[in-house]
Amino acid sequence: MKDRLYALFVNRVPGIRDRYRKSRETKAARWKSLLLLLGLNLQYYVFFRRSLAYPERSPMYEEKRLYSSGSESSLSQREAPEAFAARLASFDVISFDVFDTLLFRPFSHPTDLFYLMGMALSYPDFRQIRIDAEKQARKEKKNNANTFEVSLSDIWEIMERETGIPQKYGIQVEEEWEQRCCFANPYMLQVVHALLRRGKVVIATSDMYLPAAFIQTLLSRCGYRSLVGCFVSCEFGTSKGDGRLYEVLRRSFGQTKTYVHVGDHPEADYQQAMRHHMQAILYANVHHMGNLYRPMDLSAIVGSVYRGIINTHIHNGLRTYSREYEYGFIYGGLFVTGYCQFIHQYVQAHSIEKILFLSRDGFVLLQAYRQMYPKETTRTTYAHWSRLAAIKLCAGDYRSEYFRRFLTHKVDQKYTIQQIIKSMELDRLLDTLCQTVKVEPDTELTYKNVGTIQKYLMNHWGDIQHLYQEQVEAGKVYYFQLLKGCHRAVAVDIGWAGSGAILLDHAVNRLWLLDCPITGILAGTNSCYSPEIDASEPFLFAGKLVSYLYSQGVNRDLWKYHDPAQGHNLYWELLLGAPEGSLKGFYWDQSGNCQCRFKENVPNPERIHEIHRGILDFVKQFLAVEDRFGCDIPIPGRDAYAPMVSVCSRKNKSFREGLEGLLDETHIA
Fold first, then answer.
1. What's the rounded Cα separation, in Å, for the pair 420 and 456?
2. Is 118 within 8 Å of 124 (Cβ atoms)?
3. CA distances (Å), origin 116, targets 35, 63, 66
4. What tens digit of pLDDT does each residue of 442-478 get?
5. Distance CA 397, CA 472 (A)
6. How far apart are CA 115 and CA 125, in angstroms?
7. For the chain, which end, N or C, has fewer CB atoms within 10 Å of the first or last residue's CB respectively?
8. Around Cβ 287, how many Cβ atoms within 10 Å?
9. Separation between Cα atoms, residue 499 and residue 531, nearest integer Å
10. CATH classification of 72-289 is 3.40.50.1000, yes or no?
11. Domain ranges in the chain?
């Protein structure tokens, strides 16, 4: 009967089954899980919420409501480690929970470690098999010994029976991956060290199937040395969850001593400790705090690692970060890391000799790339380039592009004729243009007068090219130095039409005859909402442009989602843009040397540096996880985009308001 009810109310609908299982895996009180199950069935069968059937398929884009009243890390702000240790030092014996308190794993859920075991063992669906084996072991132990507490040997006895993997070998692999993955909670590490310096009795107490000796080895490897003892539920047949493990440790050290326990589980670590004559302090679980704001719409392993890195860093309580830092760390870190992987793979596959990180979007990308691939530093360089400079240099061969960028895109945008001509650096033509076209310099550019202005400029095309000749010659000297001896290069940019890389290739090979084909590597292309929807398609088709996040042929759903009119381009560019102003062009200085001239630096450069600091810290932590795993963790473009979906969501307008003052202008002048 029980199996039939389980099949009807749990297994019948995949979305209900997954939510119920997650509730049970987090060791929520049974009545809470049953209440959740009842509510889910009511929603599905009575209120016809069919999206519950396959939650990963609906909605198409997961949009979490982000915390907007300050930095997210402020939600987990704690007293300084020394101050917390001083409070704890008033007790005779200080007990700490182990996992998610003293130790972290780089996953948003502990069972995700089994993915890597499945990889090591080459066993399909290993994670679910291992989860089910533990449940079965607990069920059998309850029937045979009236306790749910099992050891790793108990679990692997069932695993050997179910999978054929030898028990001894399976235990060895699992312990190896625990050692690889576990690392110290930086906040608690300082707390414990402060207590040990005071000579306090510090112990570890855990509801766990791993043996105490192994857990102590884990703790020692992570910096927790000199702990007096380790009390583990599987070795006593009782747990923190039922409260009797606290009685065991109190008998061990003496009933008259004073005790305090610190842990992350509200029931097992707090309520039960209080019920069994111990003081208790709840340490908020970093994943429960962070997952409210983390996207789940990523591939299983990359998503778990991403959330694990973010949650353990932002919510451990050691520091409170600025909103700009968090914008870089949380929303830009995964993208930059994945984009650098993509660049590296392309460079290796096509024997590229030089990687040009185009200003300004290449500023932090270059730093991240060198951090990830230090052996390739000599082939990387920061190359000054901009749409503004490119359009002027290549105007002779890209006349329609020149007028589109300078005139068509600015029609009815409140720009005066004088502003337009000045941005084109054609000041010498302003007076005669106004006299000929019969307009005043402060007249706004509109659809009514744009045609006559363009006609005038067309009639004086020779004068225009002559005015740009200095920039053409100076630009040649600049890029000759960058590309000297190079015969194959890539230009890295954020996007979107790819015109920066295309025009650079044209200038290098047709205008300056430097004989170095350049391929453009973009984060993303024009989307279906872009004015020139197909502008880059011939170049993508020919391989002159490649895109990481999306294009018409890659991650087409993102191509249909990304909307420049909603500011999506600007919030992506904010992640990368340099604090310096964009390039105006190349010129000769008084000594006859090439010099780059820039627009004014962006306001609040220190806030831009904070964004970049967050990005580079994420890269550092991601590399540390790869080092622990002993393998690369490839980041698909679809995963890299996922954190920004919530940022760009209409429901998070208040989150974006604090960043709007840092956004670039949308035009090129």
1. 14
2. yes
3. 33, 28, 30
4. 999 999 999 999 999 999 999 999 999 999 999 999 9
5. 13
6. 8
7. N
8. 24
9. 14
10. yes
11. 2-57, 72-289, 351-566+579-598
